[in-house]
Amino acid sequence: MELAVSVKNLVVEYDQFRLENVNIEVPAGTIVGFVGENGAGKTTTIIAILNLIHYQKGEIKVFGKEMSEGEQEIKKRIGVDLDDSFFYDNFKVKEICQVLRQMFPDWDQNFMDVHLKKAGIDPQKKFKECSMGMKAKLKILTAVAHQPELLILDEPTSGLDPVSRDDILELFLEFVQDEQHTILFSSHITTDIEKIADYIIFIHEGQIELNIEKDQLLDTYGLLKCSKQDAADLADFPYEYHQSIPYAEKFVIKDRQGFQKEFPDLTVERITIDELLLMMSKGERA
Amino acid sequence: MNALLLKEFYLFRNNSKQLFLMLLLFLIIGITTESTVYFSTISIVFCLQIMTSFSYDQYGNWTSYVLSLPLSRKKYVASKYIFSFYCCLTGGLFCLMAYGIYGLIKESGDWREIFLLAGGIFVMGILLSAVLIPILLKFGAEKSRIIFYIVFGVLFGIFFVFAKNPDLAQFVQMIMKKSTWVIGSMTIAGTMILLILISFSISVKIFKEKEF
Q: I need a surface site. Which of A33, B14, B133, B207 has the fewest CB within 10 A?
């Protein structure tokens, strides 16, 4: 399997935070969702991949090469949308495009013009005059206009209404249509990830908790909610995470169907990404 | 590199309204009060547009964005020096223009002195930028403002010591008299280039270590 991004045993240390042996694989031609609560380490991992920070240990490869082997050439093949960094508010959309056009020889202004019109963004408008949705779309469009092979996006749909989010997800799907393009995008809006991701990586407190194909996760994982008495009666059984809530116990089960066969009296529901994320954050690992 | 300079140009253009209003105001105040010191002040403001550039970079988190694009850190630093050079050139030209207009209106002024003053503003701007850019890269725009006032104060202090000390002033005048225009200009240009090269290499080193 060809990998667009591979991160091995990445360690990043700050005073109050540590990324601990992070391992990530982003197969080429797929959409990979990077999920975690705020402060889990999503942005740190992404900026480490982009070589914006120094890391203490580990190996990061993009398109099979480390950044030291030709950062500029690698970055020409990447489109980036970072959460809170872009052009100044006072820049006009047209000016933003003109600056980026100078940066990328393969910049497709025709693509920009068509999509700006489609998104209802006036090129003469200042960035600060755009709505939240327009700003987010513009950032994505500018990341895509030089026809990169890989998109790295940090919280691209954060703070948007469902309609704008859906528009952006459509853009992503359009981007990966030919199966040659890859997207790695972080989000804490799990419904977006559930909609379009092929693979999901869960990160919690600087550690990768799970790296799994989305369909496999949704098909096999389950959530068991039972009374405290039922939980005590179950004695030893395999589970991934456990959380005690008032009057009940919750368990994440890896093999939902197998568990259901073994314990037919209990109901194990399909798990959502939201619930799994909550269990990782609030529960305890087995 | 062109992209970065174009971005600086747009930024300069976007801020030019306020800047030119200020310029006009200082020009009017200078002419009406017959106090030409305002012209030098506004010229220095032009030279220091590099500080505004860094402030905006910080404000919009532009730096982390631009470094995620195919651009080396060295080129980013180089673009700041080139932009700074243009700002100082604009400052010098404005000084020339303002004193020239004033001289024509008041039918006074010595063109040789005006050219010397404009050149002095340009040189001072370059020197300040050479000191400021590494500081701006190391500490960011906000902290650097405070450091700038200290640097400016120190430079003013040195100038004051020279001006008030007859021996030192005489020594400088003696050197200036002995050297020809060509030697003087070449010495200044050589010193400036050397300082810029030292400043640039320090800046690149600082910026390569920086995290975003």
A: B14
